[in-house]
Design a protein that fits this description.
With about 425 residues, the protein is an alpha/beta fold. It contains eight helices and 33 strands. Strands 1, 4, 5, 6, 8, 9, 10, 11 and 12 form a nine-stranded mixed sheet that branches. A seven-stranded parallel sheet has the order 15-18-21-24-27-30-32, with no helix packed on it. The protein has a seven-stranded parallel sheet with strand order 16-19-22-25-28-31-33. α2 links the parallel β4 and β5. α6 crosses α7. The N and C termini lie far apart (about 50 Å). About 0% of the residues have low confidence.
């Protein structure tokens, strides 16, 4: 019988609806980040850097790109004969086929997978946060306290605490109580959605609570363990951690990478972030190009000017085009003579010559102001924008658009242009 001390289960099925058109065709953990990575690279790299070599990745929504990216785990050194990385989609059983309905339901449906490694401990992770964390240190804390469930927490400003699951712990970090998004929080320790369970405890809780609709860790599994008076502890993490669940937080996290001394450093030797890299030629900068304070991925060709931006791999930026404060993802082509301000442009987009983006006064987005805000212009993948048009702020464009879609060659601030069939 194989025996692994700790295995990881990485929840990567989420749609990430607050990322709008960025996740209309791809799961949130597969969204590009930082010029050459995808969001899921961070928890996967944390696993291998922490000595966790068995990872089950639970996929559901639009899994194709995620599956292709992970493959058999070679970039993370997770191509192992025993363990390694396994993609675990929902599957049909003989009696009934069911989608994963909640975070814990997804884990429950994979009890056989976990059982096959006979682990002492199971680490539960989410696939959509940007951070570096040594899970081995958390495991040592878990063991030292004789804990059955350890929840990673981080201090948040008290005024933001009502947005999180909040943990109330004593001076020894033993959990006394917890509240899901409390109106009047009694503590500022927010759950990070990272858990270490003793395998026996996790299995017992999952089986006991299996009938709950949309079985969830925060709502069902943790309360069950608490009611049974099992020892639960809070492990405090003080490093960089970013939930890139909204377009503005995703934009900010990318922009923080280009600070003079980035708080989150992709260049540290001892804690590398691994990813699947395509074989691409080096970057090319023409004699007229200017690039300042930017990350530019390999295979990109820059004829224009780029300031404070994160440019992915295989991107072309035409002559006399100025790009500022923007994120441009892989394989996108931008024509010449344009102006791109504070935009998030997804993969494989084609933008014609003389396109101005992110100009004029701000106006609230007409269809989804809770998604498209902070003055950003967002373009979905494989979109086409014709030459010579101007586009305002808090706008969103998705699909193959033509000159006829832009009245007087203009898309005003706050407008949504999503072509049918997209």
């Amino acid at each position: 019988m194989i025996k692994k001390e700790m295995i990881a289960m990485l929840l990567a099925g989420g749609q990430g609806s607050r990322l709008g058109v960025l996740t209309s065709k791809v799961a949130k953990p597969a969204v590009a980040f930082g010029g050459k990575y995808r969001i899921i690279d961070f928890p996967l790299s944390n696993c291998i850097n922490s000595g966790v070599d068995t990872v089950g990745v639970l996929t559901q929504y639009q899994p194709l790109r995620l599956n292709t990216h992970i493959g058999i785990g070679i970039p993370w050194d997770l191509d192992r004969n025993i363990g390694g990385v396994t993609v675990l989609p929902p599957y049909e059983k003989s009696s009934n086929s069911e989608w994963y309905t909640g975070t814990a339901n997804a884990i429950y449906q994979n009890i056989d997978y976990m059982e096959s490694f006979n682990p002492e401990y199971v680490l539960i992770l989410s696939g959509d946060h940007i951070y570096k964390m040594d899970y081995e240190v958390m495991l040592d804390f878990h063991k030292a306290n004789g804990s059955e469930v350890t929840i990673a927490v981080m201090p948040v400003p008290m005024e933001e605490a009502s947005r999180f699951g909040i943990i109330i712990a004593d001076e020894n970090r033993k959990i006394q109580d917890f509240e899901e998004k409390p109106a009047n929080p009694r503590s500022n320790l927010a759950s990070m959605g990272i858990y270490i369970f003793n395998w026996k405890t996790l299995k017992e809780a999952l089986i006991a609570m299996a009938e709950q609709p949309a079985l969830d860790f925060g709502k069902h599994v943790i309360p069950y363990c608490h009611e049974k008076q099992m020892p639960l502890f809070a492990y405090e993490f003080n490093g960089y951690w970013k939930d890139v669940g909204t377009l503005s937080s995703y934009w900010e996290a990318n922009m923080e990478l280009i600070d003079i001394v980035p708080e989150f450093n992709l260049y540290e030797e001892y804690w590398k972030i691994y990813t699947k890299s395509d074989i691409l030629p080096p970057q090319y900068f023409s004699s007229d190009s200017v690039v300042e304070r930017s990350i530019v991925g390999e295979g990109s060709v820059i004829y224009g000017k780029v300031y404070n931006s994160v440019i992915g791999c295989g991107v072309t930026i035409g002559a006399d085009t100025v790009v500022r404060d923007s994120i441009i993802m892989n394989q996108t082509e931008i024509g010449g003579g344009g102006e791109i301000n504070k935009a998030i442009i997804a993969e494989n987009v084609r933008i014609g010559d003389n396109v101005k983006m992110g100009i004029g006064e701000e106006a609230e987005n007409e269809t989804a102001p809770h998604i498209y805000n902070h003055g950003l212009t967002t373009v979905g993948e494989k979109s086409v924008i014709p030459a010579g048009v101007s586009i305002g702020k808090n706008t969103v464009i998705s699909g193959v658009t033509t000159a006829d879609d832009y009245e007087n060659s203009y898309l005003a601030s706050g407008k949504t242009l999503i072509k049918a069939g997209e």
